[in-house]
Amino acid sequence: MPFLIGWAQGLRYLSIIRSDERIRSRVVTWLAMPAAIVLAWTLLRWLRWYGIVTCAKTGWGTRQNGAEVALASAPSSA
Questions:
Q1: Per-residue pLDDT in tens (0 to 9) along the chain, 78 residues
Q2: Do residues 37 and 7 touch, judged by C-beta distance below 8 A?
Q3: What's the gap between Cα 44 and its chain centre?
Q4: How far apart are CA 51 and CA 60, in angstroms?
Q5: Which of 11, 8, 5 is nearest to 41 (CA)?
Q6: Of 43, 50, 15, residue with least CA distance to 29
Q7: Which CB contacts under 8 angstroms, 24+ apart, belong to 7-12?
Q8: Alpha helices in the chain (DSSP H)
Q9: What is this structure's pTM?
């Protein structure tokens, strides 16, 4: 059932026509949907659960020492 749902969701990818992409490329991407579904149901599922469990730990953030940008004072005109 997940494969059928994934392929059905992938049909919208085939319905949008872009001038810079060939139809063969879109069909190959649509046929690769089972691999994407298996990846989402295995590895990505565990990564989602890990993110949910560890979201309160903010030690990995980039703003530990405050903002990197400071407001400079305007030069005085003399």
A1: 777 877 787 777 777 778 888 888 888 888 888 888 888 888 888 998 998 888 877 666 666 666 666 677 766 665
A2: no
A3: 11
A4: 12
A5: 5
A6: 15
A7: 7/33, 7/34
A8: 2-15, 23-31, 33-41, 43-53
A9: 0.49
Contact 38, 3 (CB under 8 A): no
Q: Which amino acid, one-letter code, is at 47?
A: L
Residue with tokens 């309160």: 56
**Closest by Cα among 1, 5, 27 to 14:** 27
> Which tokens belong to 68?
């990197």
Helix (H, G, I), strand (E, B) or coil at 49: helix
Q: State the Rg of the chain over Cα.
A: 23
For residue 20 the two structure tokens come to 């810079």
Question: Measured between alpha carbons, how far is residue 22 from residues 8, 25, 50 in Å?
Answer: 20, 5, 38
